[in-house]
Amino acid sequence: MDEERALYIVRAGEAGAIERVLRDYSDKHRATFKFEPTDEDKRKKLCEGIFKVLIKDIPTTCQVSCLEVLRILSRDKKILVPVTTKENMQILLRLAKLNESDDSLEKVSEFPVIVESLKCLCNIVFNSQMAQQLSLELNLAAKLCNLLRKCKDRKFINDIKCFDLRLLFLLSLLHTDIRSQLRYELQGLPLLTQILESAFSIKWTDEYESAIDHNGPPLSPQETDCAIEALKALFNVTVDSWKVHKESDSHQFRVMAAVLRHCLLIVGPTEDKTEELHSNAVNLLSNVPVSCLDVLICPLTHEETAQEATTLDEVPSDKTAEKETVLKNNTMVYNGMNMEAIHVLLNFMEKRIDKGSSYREGLTPVLSLLTECSRAHRNIRKFLKDQVLPPLRDVTNRPEVGSTVRNKLVRLMTHVDLGVKQIAAEFLFVLCKERVDSLLKYTGYGNAAGLLAARGLLAGGRGDNWYSEDEDTDTEEYKNAKPNINLITGHLEEPMPNPIDEMTEEQKEYEAMKLVNMLDKLSREELLKPMGLKPDGTITPLEEALNQYSVIEETSSDTD
Fold first, then answer.
1. Residue 169 in contact with residue 232, Cβ under 8 Å?
2. Are 522 and 531 within 8 A, CB to CB?
3. % of residues, the chain, pLDDT over 70
4. Tell me, what is one Gene Ontology molecular-function annotation carried by this entry (predicted)?
5. Which end of the chain has fewer CB atoms at under 10 Å, N or C?
């Protein structure tokens, strides 16, 4: 009934009547996302009628009402096939000021029309494959970049930027060709980075360092939304950027990493918006070549260095770990480097662990990022080792029992999701400089067995990467307890009575043969398969392992 009345007025009424009836329709269906199939034909005709009205010379308020209803109707995929034509797309492009002939955005009264047109384009491009193909034909990505350049430094048109960026994100998500066009032809990387700089109001103090006002106001909701959309678009543009080939690329990625560092150190209007902002920053940092991530940490200024010296003198000498990370302004410092951004990433990771769900989507990106940073940058690894794996003092509890970051990560090493447990184990392994003995000290052999088996390190040793040698950090408490620590569980256990001490020799022999027969039965029924270690450290069926060792011995004897 609503569609019939609106269609009748759209076809025969004047602008004022059209505006009123469409405004009523919009108010009634603003939250409608599922439509009645029986009225599908009426909605198609209403869309066609609205496009015919939009090509006329009508007031701005009437244009907005038309576009609002079109945005609502474009949520229905079924009606978009007949109305998604090149002519209709061009009408929306003209209203969104996406034609090259539109040089500026001076008329504030037109801004609602531009925003609603962009919203319509977002829905239509997302829901219609025909619209996606027409977007390529009409070179929509280039037009969107031109619109961004017109408004990148003008904060009062954040809504235009936000939906321009959202449409750019959708295009780059749906078409891999557009990603390449944005990256190289349209210079999307510096353009989108500048959009982020503008949203964060960044003031540079050095080439890759920005001024951070810890007492400043949070980002506004509009600035936060713009930044999130820009981060998502940048992720698509840089998704294949694993290696830096040119100096200009390296510089641009370092600038972007510095902007993302600034992003991690500011907050949004709400806690949820801050987490969403930081989550997208983490995803984008995962695309930055690891050699460019050194800008996440920076040397202290002379003032901060003097302040650190004053603060450290106030800390008791027996608390050396605290002395390395305390400053009066809450700045995290390690070896004279500002570690605020890394500390934010560590806290973000712990919050994602505490959520207890969606580990693969929410946790693995930040864990992977911290792992690669630790592998490539010594200061980051040492700081994270200090925070996650401090020197052991109390070894009475199992490594997976407790509320510290170490306990939480060790619990993840036996998670049911293979990807989650692999990246958690890899992170701890890298913090231990890929040394098996160091990893076992913090996790126990049982928790680390999966990683060691996959790496062929069940017999011990270390990984393939080289790390600097550090001094021994074992505490006196750990050294005293070490002889009595259970290597499997990784904690100190009370001595257990030996059950065979009070057995006679006949009883011992009977129990031994009973065990042999049970194992033989399980093996013959293939419920249990004896395994052994190959010379390269990987596990294999016992017979195959013994054969390989026999071949090695024969070869050695022949050589002798």
1. yes
2. no
3. 88
4. G-protein alpha-subunit binding
5. C
Spatial distance between the Cα atoms of 227 and 140, rounded to a whole number of angstroms? 21
Does some domain include residue 513? no
Q: What angle do CA 131, 276, 329 make, to 5 degrees?
A: 145
- List the beta strands (DSSP E) in 283-374: 298-299, 333-334, 337-338
3-state secondary structure of 302: helix
In terms of Cβ atoms closer than 10 Å to its own Cβ (0-12, 13-18, 19+), residue 140 is buried
Select from 289, 164, 291, 293 the least CA-distant residue to 239: 289
CA distance 455 to 547: 22
Examine the pLDDT at 255 and tell me if it is beyond 60: yes
User: Does the pLDDT at position 429 exceed 70?
Assistant: yes
Q: What are phi and psi of 204, to 5 degrees?
A: -80, 135
Report yes or no: 534 and 548 within 8 Å, Cβ to Cβ: yes
Would 512 be classed as within a structural domain?
A: no
- The dihedral region occupied by 465, where left means phi > 0, alpha psi between -120 and 50, and beta the remainder, is beta
Instruction: Based on the fold, state whether residues 550 and 486 are members of the same structural domain.
Output: no
Residue 288 lies in a domain: no
Query: What is the span of the domain harbouring residue 549?
Result: 518-557
- Tell me phi and psi for residue 337, to 5 degrees: -115, 140
Q: Which two tokens stand for residue 467?
A: 């790390």
Mark out the alpha helices in 444-504 (DSSP H runs): 445-455, 476-481
For β-strands 298-299 and 204-206, DSSP reports them as: unpaired
Q: Strand pairing partners for 298?
A: 338
Query: What band does 171 get if pLDDT is binned at 50, 70 and 90?
Result: very high
Question: CA-CA distance, 192 to 227, in Å (whole number)?
Answer: 9
Pick from 457, 474, 492: which residue ends a domain? 492
Return the pLDDT at 221.
93
Contact 143, 100 (CB under 8 A): yes
Whole-angstrom CA distances from 248 to 335, 377, 397, 481 are 30, 22, 52, 54
List, in order, residues 6 or more apart from 192 with CB less than 8 Å away: 165, 230, 233, 234, 237
**Cα(557)–Cα(560) distance, rounded to whole angstroms?**
5
CB neighbourhood size of 317 (10 A): 8
Mark which of 138, 166, 201 sits at the end of a domain.
138
For residues 480 and 372, state if they share a domain: yes
Long-range contact list for 155-162, CB < 8 A, 24+ apart?
A: 155/198, 155/223, 157/105, 157/111, 158/222, 158/223, 158/225, 158/226, 159/111, 159/115, 159/222, 160/105, 160/111, 160/114, 160/115, 160/118, 161/195, 161/226, 162/222, 162/225, 162/226, 162/229
- Are both 476 and 541 inside the same structural domain? no
In the chain, how many domains are there? 3
DSSP collapsed to 3 states, 378-409? HHHHHHHHHHHCCCCCCCCCCCCCCCCHHHHH
Residues 6+ positions from 547 with CB-CB distance below 8 Å: none
Residue 176, token pair as written in the block: 């891999």
* pLDDT (tens digit per residue) in 495-552: 778 888 888 999 989 999 999 999 888 888 888 888 887 777 777 887 787 787 676 6
